[in-house]
């Protein structure tokens, strides 16, 4: 009902104790045990779900004995106060119980009080990407119920947290260089909370795209190279045929005409390189670090294709020499595997400037955070800001990705779940 804040939990929430079946003691039908329900936690969650700002502020700031009151969790649902505040905005779905999707819209008053509550909680240090028992972050929940205004607030909080983590990594490097003093003076006061928050949750900026694999580990593992995929020794998908359309669009944008000079980093299945070759480039440099991929490239005759120069090794080791030799390119593409966001940022902040022609273009496989829509949206904004800071403009084009359900058989982890691929094209700023 419009204007009414719906409770996310039944109103008898204040009971000090509840009875429940204990399956470990005899017949669960007849044996009961008493458990304590933490009143503080329930009070905070209830105030969040009621969008009661005054009470919530009081509870979170002063009254609660809890050390991290803005991030308490309901033991049953795993809801944090942010989840509770957002779930309370869900339109009344008559048929929710029947499992059908509601078409009802969120009342503007509820949305407004939801916005205020979410803002308050974020100011009080609420974690933007904490997971509930349904594996949803507050942002996932907001998106699912169609509360896009709330979703955008959470995305912005995610961007702030991730940007801050990047900066702190920079500070850490400084401190390793014996500049510890400078670090502690410059560190923003809110930093530790945000860093702690993000550490507990689902995405971390400087983790590799697949957190289970490091670049060093990957490069030392042996690969299974098949017709439609490359897998590492743990069955992680390194490259898959379904990405061909993305590669095609990327190659078209990077090399609109024949006779240009192109550099591709990461050969993989050779899909993008095959498409770049179709544009008869004047020169076509390829950097590839994995010995199995290099062997396969040679077996398939890449070393004798027109204009092709293969560099065996990591781009981190190869690119400085190319810069020193004065090599420049009209187009550069970056698509590696098991590298961190920090590696990628080093690539475009440190290397591209020395390699790209003034009117050249560069692009990358935009797969960061693609296993969850909110992570994808956060990473896009983080990358965009860093790309601007490095002196480039970026243009995005959405490409629908077909349903990939059958694709993941035999692959350890579905690294792509979002509906649209956002294809980036970067140029020097005017
Ligand atoms: C996702 S695949 C590239 C797919 C390619 N775009 C295609 O169209 O088939 C990533 C490739 O990057 C390579 N790679 C990983 N880390 C690298 C690094 N540091 N330097 C160069 N190549 C790297 C991997 O061995 C792999 O062949």
UniProtKB/TrEMBL annotation:
<dbReference type="GO" id="GO:0019702">
    <property type="term" value="F:protein arginine N5-methyltransferase activity"/>
</dbReference>
<feature type="domain" description="RMT2">
    <location>
        <begin position="209"/>
        <end position="430"/>
    </location>
</feature>
<dbReference type="GO" id="GO:0005737">
    <property type="term" value="C:cytoplasm"/>
</dbReference>
<feature type="compositionally biased region" description="Polar residues">
    <location>
        <begin position="198"/>
        <end position="219"/>
    </location>
</feature>
<feature type="region of interest" description="Disordered">
    <location>
        <begin position="172"/>
        <end position="219"/>
    </location>
</feature>
<dbReference type="InterPro" id="IPR026480">
    <property type="entry name" value="RMT2_dom"/>
</dbReference>
<comment type="subunit">
    <text>Monomer.</text>
</comment>
<dbReference type="InterPro" id="IPR036770">
    <property type="entry name" value="Ankyrin_rpt-contain_sf"/>
</dbReference>
<dbReference type="InterPro" id="IPR051038">
    <property type="entry name" value="RMT2/GAMT_Mtase"/>
</dbReference>
<dbReference type="InterPro" id="IPR017408">
    <property type="entry name" value="Arginine_N-MeTrfase_2"/>
</dbReference>
<comment type="similarity">
    <text>Belongs to the class I-like SAM-binding methyltransferase superfamily. RMT2 methyltransferase family.</text>
</comment>
<keyword id="KW-0539">Nucleus</keyword>
<protein>
    <recommendedName>
        <fullName>Arginine N-methyltransferase 2</fullName>
        <ecNumber>2.1.1.-</ecNumber>
    </recommendedName>
</protein>
<keyword id="KW-0963">Cytoplasm</keyword>
<comment type="function">
    <text>S-adenosyl-L-methionine-dependent protein-arginine N-methyltransferase that methylates the delta-nitrogen atom of arginine residues to form N5-methylarginine (type IV) in target proteins. Monomethylates ribosomal protein L12.</text>
</comment>
<keyword id="KW-0949">S-adenosyl-L-methionine</keyword>
<dbReference type="GO" id="GO:0032259">
    <property type="term" value="P:methylation"/>
</dbReference>
<dbReference type="GO" id="GO:0005634">
    <property type="term" value="C:nucleus"/>
</dbReference>
<keyword id="KW-0808">Transferase</keyword>
<keyword id="KW-0489">Methyltransferase</keyword>
<dbReference type="InterPro" id="IPR029063">
    <property type="entry name" value="SAM-dependent_MTases_sf"/>
</dbReference>
<feature type="compositionally biased region" description="Acidic residues">
    <location>
        <begin position="172"/>
        <end position="190"/>
    </location>
</feature>
